[in-house]
Amino acid sequence: MKRKIIKALYQWKNRKNHKPLILEGARQVGKTYSALEFGREAYENVVYVNFEDNMNIEALFRRDLNPSRIIKELSVTAASSIFPEKTLIVFDEIQSCERALTSLKYFNEQAPEYDIIAAGSLLGVAVNRSNYSFPVGKVDFLKMFPMDFEEFLWAIGQEKMGELICEYYHSLEAFPLHEQAMGFLENYLSVGGMPAVVKTYIESNDQNQVINEQKGINHAYIADMAKYATPQETARLMDIWNSIPAQLAKENKKFQYKMVKSGARAYQYESALAWLASSGLINRCFRISEGRPPLSVFEDTASFKLYSVDSGLLFSRYGVRAEQVFRVETGMSEVRGALAENYMMQALIQNEITPYYWTENRTRSELDFVFQNSEGAVIPIEVKSGINVRAKSLNTFIQTYAPKRALRVSARNFGRTEKIESIPLYAAHCIRDQERKNG
C-alpha cells in the first residue's frame, strides 16, 4: 500500500549528514512494512533484525558497542553483506534491546556511512520506564500514524478522487462528487487506517471480517499493557482505555475521571495516561482559556480530551454496524459525532498540527479545535458530523478574537460565508499548517 511516510524517508536519506532514524508509532500502523518497502526501493539490499523475535541477536551488543565489530558480526548472522550507503539496516522492536538503542549514538559518531532505521512500537514506554542510555541528539525522528483518508483512497483505487478533493479545498467551489466522497469517508470511518484492516476490507468487503481484524488489534494492545506495565498500572490503563468510547460519545467530551472509575482522582491515573500517550494509543487535546497567540501560554493541562489512535478501532468498540451509524434515521448521533471528532483529531496531528480546544464559561461556548500555525495565526475549527451546522461557539470565537480564517468541517459541501469556510469532512487531510495561498 502506498504510504506518505515513504516520501519522508527519502528526504531523510537524501539529507546530508543524516543520523540513524527512529521511526515511532503505535503497533500495527505499518512501520516495519514501510521501512522494508523503502529499503527495497532505495537501497541495493536490506538487513532486517527483529529484537523481539530473535533474542540471540542481543548478544552482538553485549561485548561492546563498536560499530565496525557489530557490522561484521551482524553481516554473518544475517547471511548478507552490509555496504556503506548501499545497505539499509532495519532494527525492529528496538525497545527490547537497550544496548542496541544505545549503539545508535556510536553509529552516528563513528560510522555515519551506515544507514539505520530503528522502529519501536513501545519505545516511548520503554525509555520512560527504564534506565536507557538514550542517544540524545544522535538520532533523527519520524512519527508514523495509521493511514489517513487520502491514503485509504489510494488503497481502494481512488487516487484521482484524493487529488480532486484537495483541488476543490483550495478553491472552495462546490464539489460535484460530494455524495460519492462522503460515501468513501463513511467507509473509512468504520474501517479506519490500520493497514491490516484496510487489506481485509479490500480483499473481503466483509464487515464481519473487518471487525474481527480490528478486535484482534485491540486485543494486541491490551496484551501489550499486561506485558509492559505493572499489574496495578495495567488495571488503570484498562480503566482509561475502556472509558474512551463513552467519553467521546457524550456531549461534553472533556475527559472525566468519574467515568473511568467511581472515586477516581487525577493523581492516580497520571502515569497510566502517560503510558498510553507514549505508546501512541491515545492522542490528548488540551484546553486553552484564550484564543490568541501564543496558544501554549493559555494551555490548561488539567483539562483535556482523549482520542483513539484510529477511528476504525474506535468504531469497532461501539459494537454496532456501519449502516446503523451512518443512517440518520437510526439515531446514533452521539457515535457519529465521536467518530467525526476523532477523525478530525487524527487528520490534524498527521499533518503535524498541535490542536487545542477552547471553552468560554461566560457564554458556555466550546470549540472543538484551535491551532496556531507556523506564521502565528490562530485558526478555529468547529466539527459537525451532519449537515446541521449552527455554529454558535465558532461565531463567539470569531467575534471575540477576529481570526483571519475560521473553518467549519461538516457533512456539507465546500463553500464560504463572509466569515466561515465550509470544509467537508472528507477534506480534513487537506488542512495544513499555513494560510491558504490565495488568501
UniProtKB/TrEMBL annotation:
The keyword ATP-binding applies. Keywords: ATP-binding, Nucleotide-binding. Residues 18-153 form the AAA domain. Coiled coil: none annotated. GO terms for molecular function: ATP binding. SUPFAM superfamilies: P-loop containing nucleoside triphosphate hydrolases. It holds the Pfam family AAA_14. InterPro entries: AAA_14, DUF4143, P-loop_NTPase. Residues 224-386 form the DUF4143 domain. This is ATP-binding protein.
